[in-house]
Amino acid sequence: MTNGAFEELTRLRQLGPVSFDLLRRLVHQVRRAYGFPPPDGHTQWSDDAAYEVVVAMLTREGKGQKFVTGCFALATDDASLERLFLTSIKYYLIDEAKKTPRGKLRRRIARLMNEDSAYRKSKGSPPRWALAEHAEEAVWQGDLDALIAQAARVTGVGVTRWNHSGPTPRQTVHALKTILLCVLQHAQGAVREEDLAKVLESRFELLAPARFTQLYADDGAVAELVDQHAVTVAPDPTGGDEVAEGIWQRLSPNERLLLPYLDEDAHHAAQRLEVRQGHAAVVLSNLKTLLHDALSADSDPQAVMSALLRRRSDAPS
């Protein structure tokens, strides 16, 4: 229970250290209860992250500390003030989460599952989804990395086109639902919507930023791209370049980044990719499997790998 925040606001008529500390602690309470992601610039929740949320709430244009005075005007004691603060923080974090790429992904998969009778949304918070065949009280309590690894074992599906508005392409719907079905069957219970989004993000790297460079002519128009290797490099008699091209097009951005580091472990791969170790282990495993399957007996593996590494070093970052 709070200790003095209502009295402090009554006395000072503005936010003081006790009230600010209460808001920071309530941010932690809300994010734990609803599974909200940390603010931009933070990979995980901490007191600094909670502090930034409070500051952002207090400095919003047109609102700012109005939410504090509004809550205080409706409160009658510490308990009612805390409840009003909790509600304000919850709706602020909901609005912020909707703006993030993962928030948009969560809304998309929630809409897909809500339209399919095979899935069921569990009651309460944070939002969780299960298969309709599962017992209503069954809840997944395992490690997220286990779900990510399970999704990585599914083959034959991929997201080749990811639209940011309008209906989701049919092939993309099929891929997303295939992974969701597999993961929920493995979980045998309800999984947090936030975790399902993380699994899909890891499996398809849906939120990975595009890496490209535009070249401009003197007049400002986009210049015609010239394949410099076609001019300066003699034709490859081994056919390694052609095979490498096919492999390169199938690699995800993170898999391309790890090409020179196949002998490293998941811990170091996670540091290079700036992702969770479980996620990095899946990317590394998928990369090794793809290379093993793609390097046929008809090609020179060493020549193909050399060509891939040249593409990796020439690729814009």
Q: What do you see in this structure?
A:
- This protein is mainly alpha-helical and 317 residues long.
- It is built from 15 helices and 3 strands.
- The chain has a 3-stranded antiparallel sheet with strand order 1-2-3.
- A hairpin with a 6-residue loop joins strand 1 (119-121) and strand 2.
Task: Name its key features.
317 residues; 15 helices; single chain; 3% strand
Indicate the structural class: mainly alpha
SSE series: HHHHHHEEHHEHHHHHHH
The overall average pLDDT, rounded, is: 79
Instruction: Tell me the distance between the termini.
Output: 50 Å
The largest sheet, given as strand count, sense and whether it forms a barrel, is: 3 strands, antiparallel
Q: If you compute it from the alpha carbons, what radius of gyration comes out, rounded to the nearest whole angstrom?
A: 25 Å
* Number of helical regions: 15
Low-confidence parts: 208-235
Form type: elongated
Number of strands: 3
Order of the strands making up the biggest sheet: 1-2-3
Beta-strand percentage range: under 5%
Measured as a percent range, the helix fraction is: 55-70%
